[in-house]
UniProtKB/TrEMBL annotation:
Its EC number is 7.6.2.5. Belongs to the ABC transporter superfamily. ABCB family. Heavy Metal importer (TC 3.A.1.210) subfamily. The keyword Translocase applies. Pfam families: ABC_membrane (PF00664), ABC_tran (PF00005), MTABC_N (PF16185). It is found in: Cell membrane; Early endosome membrane; Endoplasmic reticulum membrane; Endosome membrane. PROSITE patterns: ABC_TM1F (PS50929), ABC_TRANSPORTER_1 (PS00211), ABC_TRANSPORTER_2 (PS50893). The chain crosses the membrane at residues 207-228, 324-346, 352-373. The lineage of its organism: Eukaryota, Metazoa, Chordata, Tunicata, Ascidiacea. This is ATP-binding cassette sub-family B member 6. InterPro entries: AAA+_ATPase, ABC1_TM_dom, ABC1_TM_sf, ABC_transporter-like_ATP-bd, ABC_transporter-like_CS, ABCB6_N, P-loop_NTPase, Type_1_exporter. Residues 208-497 form the ABC transmembrane type-1 domain. Residues 531-764 form the ABC transporter domain.
Length: 792
């Protein structure tokens, strides 16, 4: 009770600190009033009863402590009741505390029945004071039973989410208040296919063998204590060497098969051996399926994702599936079977009291375990999210290490990471603390049960109902049972944690595939000869339109240039063409077919993109150029020569086998861009999209690349997105984009004559170039003057 009052006040204190006002009003008023009245009645009874006792007998320390603790618990519960109704916070923990309190009150009163036969029992003497005491007892029992049942009833009340509900740190996944067993069957249905190796008969046989070994293990389990008892009986009653030899051999053989709690026996070993491949199958299937799913998600999802968090969810989720399936099947289920077999055995071989005792013991153990673990869930969830966050901070800093170094922010990043770790450890503290509490409660219950069973068995032996050998059997069996019971809590915890880890991964699986092919989508046959944008409008978010009524038509062999200020929507046009996004309105056609009616893979097969920001895989130059294509060495050399990178590569230490480093950062921006061009040349697409292909190059390199590009563009439809107008001069048509609208179109000369936006941009760039060349001339003059002075 003292412990309980501590928990109650602690919870009340946390309620005050963390609760938010009037967020959740799920407990209807009359129930709170009813419970409050009952608590007040109980409080009054406590004071009156102690008043009478202290008035008629001496005031004892025990009596005072009893009065104080009961009053403290009752007042604490009253306080929690009101807090729970007025504030929205962790009502699950409050529920549990109240439930435990009322259960303790009921058990406390029921324990009085133990002295039913005693001379001191109120009924027996029947004096007036005893009758008053009996009346008090009955009223206490009734009130505590009412309180307990009202709590149970309360649990079933549906919890409504208030309209403006904003969850805390779990907002992303929204599992904050839900039980881990929420959507249990859905999760199981999801898991099951990963377990049964549909296409592999050998694996299926192995799985069946594992299950068979488990069943055999359960059957032989009770025979260990039984044979132990038989040996003792043989030794004590009619000792015969032959019999002892035979029984000992059987006993040791069974023991060898069964193994002890820590080191598994032969059956366990065989089961582990057969399950290796099956478990590998499960892990592999989950990982591959998830990876495939992530690959199919939209570009927008990938642009917004946090790599560290995704990797962490993936890793934990995969591990959780194996734990869930195999812990449940190979650990928890056998432990449960062992317990049930023990109950049945003791009920039939000893008597029903033993069966009841073990059942009560196990139920108490399980209920306490489940309660505490359910309470622990939210700490575990918060811990996972904080863990993901810490990983994300670390990944981000490592990926952007160049920026970190440039800005001297190593200390800042370290502190950010440290804060994330501290945050994570704060959550972990609560998870670990609840775990310690759980272990202590489990220990107390297990040993209380063992004590009860030993005492009962000892009494039966003394009364002559059982023999000494039975006592030994009981103790051996209980010791054998102690292990599965102890591990049951552990497995429950494991399974529960795995369910939490699984939730994050399920969220990834539930992530909608952004753009899906229509069921009747067709493949683009042949080359894409005609490309058409018709009144295309697009926005990433409804508040900000990016493209407005963009229309143009491009044929094979034509080169179009798309020019405009930064952020006006040029790259967006290339993304729409590749169908990374669907146009909000208007149509995009290839060979006269709306691209929404085409298979995405067939569109991307015939379109080659040289992106603005060429990020490479951390692999060799060779594999980055050939990326996923089967090509000959000659073809690679040809593409590299055309892209103007061949000689540079030959000058590198490992030539084509040189590693490009993380995201290709060992290469210069220009080299990366040339590499991307070489890759596109190898792909040989019928439509080429070049998004700022010379953005990372100097003027000389840019003019070289321009020649390369004009080679690349021959016989294809190509769209060059550029802010460098020199690239657009030779284009068949220049599209000038301003604020998402095409404001001018035509050949270079026509647009210059029109003296519009393009001409202004052209003059501006010309001025910049002239200014640059003047600067260079000045620089040269200065150098010459210095040189001549030196020679003088
Ligand atoms: N994935 C995205 N989500 C939301 N807005 C975006 C996204 N990509 C680009 N934008 C916005 O759309 C506008 C056009 O971008 P973009 O087409 O990349 O411009 P640019 O003409 O420089 O290539 C910009 O204002 C940019 O901020
Ligand atoms: Mg761009």
């Amino acid at each position: 009770m003292l412990f309980l009052s501590f928990f109650i006040y602690f919870q009340a204190f946390r309620y005050k600190r963390n609760g938010s006002h009037r967020r959740l009003q799920y407990v209807s008023c009359w129930k709170v009033r009813f419970q409050s009245v009952l608590i007040l009645l109980m409080l009054t009874e406590t004071f009156i009863r102690h008043g009478i006792v202290f008035g008629t007998q001496n005031v004892t320390v025990v009596g005072l402590i009893n009065l104080f603790v009961r009053a403290a618990v009752l007042l604490g519960c009253l306080c929690l009741l009101f807090l729970e109704q007025r504030l929205f916070w962790n009502s699950q923990a409050t529920d549990t505390i109240q439930l435990v309190s009322w259960s303790c009150f009921v058990i406390n009163e029921i324990l009085c029945i133990v002295s039913w036969n005693s001379e001191e029992w109120w009924f027996i003497n029947s004096s007036s004071s005893d009758q008053v005491q009996l009346g008090f007892w009955i009223s206490r029992l009734c009130i505590s039973l009412l309180l307990l049942s009202s709590k149970f009833f309360n649990q079933k009340i549906k919890r409504k989410k208030p309209e403006n509900f904003e969850s805390g740190s779990n907002e992303k996944y929204g599992h904050g208040k839900l039980s881990t067993w929420h959507d249990f069957w859905k999760k199981i249905r999801f898991l099951f296919p990963f377990m049964w190796p549909t296409k592999d008969v050998v694996l299926q046989i192995k799985l069946v063998l594992c299950v068979a070994l488990l069943i055999v293990g359960r059957v032989i389990n009770p025979y260990v204590p039984i044979y132990y008892k038989t040996i003792i009986n043989t030794l004590t009653k009619e000792p015969s060497w032959q019999m002892v030899c035979k029984q000992a051999a059987i006993y040791i053989a069974i023991k060898c098969l069964q193994g002890s709690g820590i080191s598994g026996g032969i059956l366990h070993g065989l089961r582990l051996f057969f399950s290796i491949k099956v478990e590998q199958y499960t892990t592999r299937t989950v990982q591959v399926k998830l990876f495939k799913h992530l690959q199919s998600l939209s570009l927008q999802w990938h642009l917004n994702r946090k790599t560290g968090e995704v990797m962490e969810s993936m890793q934990r989720g995969t591990a959780s599936i194996t734990t869930l399936l195999y812990t449940f099947l190979f650990q928890m289920l056998p432990s449960l079977c062992d317990i049930i077999i023990a109950i049945v055995y003791f009920t039939s071989a000893f008597d029903v009291w033993f069966g009841m005792l073990i059942s009560a013991w196990i139920i108490l153990y399980l209920v306490a375990t489940v309660w505490i673990i359910e309470w622990k869930t939210k700490f575990q969830r918060a811990q996972n999210l904080k863990d993901n966050r810490a990983k994300h901070v670390a990944y981000d800093a490592l990926l952007n290490f160049e920026t970190v170094k440039c800005y001297n922010t190593e200390e800042y990043e370290t502190l950010k990471f440290r804060d994330a770790i501290v945050d994570y450890q704060n959550s972990q503290y609560w998870t670990s603390a609840t775990l310690v509490l759980l272990n202590m409660v489990q220990m107390v219950i297990v040993h209380a049960g063992l004590l009860g069973g030993t005492l009962l068995c000892g009494k039966y032996v003394l009364d002559g109902k059982l023999q000494i050998a039975d006592f030994i059997l009981f103790e051996t069996y209980m010791a054998q049972l102690y292990h599965p019971l102890g591990t049951l809590g552990h497995y429950y915890r494991l399974i529960q944690n795995s369910f939490i880890d699984l939730e994050n991964m399920l969220d990834l699986f539930n992530e909608k595939i952004g753009i899906v092919d229509e069921p009747d989508a067709i493949s683009l046959s042949g080359e894409a000869d005609l490309l058409e944008f018709k009144d295309v409008c697009f926005n990433y978010s409804p508040q900000k339109p990016v493209l407005k009524n963009v229309s143009f038509k491009m044929k094979s062999g034509q080169t179009f240039a798309l020019v405009g200020a930064s952020g006006c929507g040029k790259s967006t046009i290339t993304r729409l063409l590749l169908r990374f996004f669907n146009a909000t309105s208007g149509t995009i056609k290839m060979n006269g077919i709306n691209i929404q009616k085409l298979l995405q893979s067939s569109i991307r097969n015939c379109v080659g993109l040289v992106p603005q920001d060429c990020v490479l895989f951390n692999d060799s130059i060779m594999s980055n150029i050939t990326y996923g294509m089967k090509v000959t060495e000659e073809q690679i050399n040809y593409a590299a020569v055309l892209a103007g990178i061949h000689h540079q590569v030959l000058g590198m230490p490992d030539q084509y086998a040189t590693d490009v480093g993380e995201r290709g950062l060992n290469l210069s921006g220009g080299e990366r861009q040339r590499l991307a061009i070489a890759r596109t040349i190898l792909k040989n697409p019928s439509v080429v999209l070049l998004d700022e292909p010379t953005s990372a190059l100097d003027n000389k390199a840019a003019s070289e690349i321009r020649k390369t590009i004009s080679q690349l563009n021959k016989g294809r439809a190509s769209l060059i997105v550029t802010h460098r107008l020199a690239m657009a001069v030779d284009a068949d048509c220049i599209l000038v984009l301003e604020n998402g609208e095409i404001v001018e179109r035509g050949r270079h000369e026509d647009l210059i004559c029109a003296n519009g936006v393009y001409a202004r941009m052209w003059r501006q760039q010309l001025d910049d170039v002239l200014a640059d060349s003047n600067l260079m001339k000045l620089d040269l003059c200065a150098n010459e003057t210095v040189g001549s002075k030196k020679t003088l």
